[in-house]
Amino acid sequence: MRRAGRIGVMVGLLAAAGLGFGGASAYAQRKSETIQATAWGQQRLAGKIFNLTIIIDSYSTADDQKMLLDAFQKGGQVQLVRVLEKMKSKGRVALTGTLGATIAYVRSFPTETGRRVRILTQRPIRFAEAFHGGRSTEYDVTAIELNLDRTDSSKSTGGLIIAAEIRVDKRTGQMVIESYGSGPWRLANFKEWK
Q: N or C, where is the chain less crowded by C-beta within 10 Å?
């Protein structure tokens, strides 16, 4: 059985999920765009590399963000995933050689050097995984954060948590993201097409 690697407290957590941060999406009405990156494994997956393609057709609104926050406060991750499943697709995210999955929630926030893109979607759980009903089925959210530098793409960074569980730490009262397996993948080598 794989051990779950803790990611930490929610300053970085919902940074990856994009839920706890306000602000208007500066890119809400743009045309479709494609972002490609290389993902590097860390911790137990050090040395593993794959390419990631993100196609964004539209951005989520502040109302979508509020709907997710309300769902999480009402029923935790179970309710959050139910709301994600009902959201209209905003695009696709795919690992090289796969069809990928739809993006349920994506926001873009301006930064001093560019923008921060946060993506949250339900993780597809395959039949065999669901049939065996292991602990991994509790990690049914995928979270991505991209920090895109408009002046020098080599300074762009990001993170990907393929199988995540979001919960509130009872001791601190803060939201925590836990990754099933080895923790987050580091993203770099970005290319953008608009």
A: N
Contact assessment for residue 6 and residue 176, using Cβ atoms and an 8 Å cutoff:
yes
Q: Which residues of the chain have pLDDT under 50?
A: 1-28
Residues 6+ apart with CB under 8 A from 89: 57, 102, 103, 104
- The tokens for 58 are 């539209």
pTM here? 0.75
Cα separation, 125 vs 138, in Å, equals 10
Distance CA 149, CA 155 (A): 6
Q: What's the domain range around 158?
A: 4-193
Provide the number of structural domains found in the chain: 1
Cα separation, 19 vs 21, in Å, equals: 6
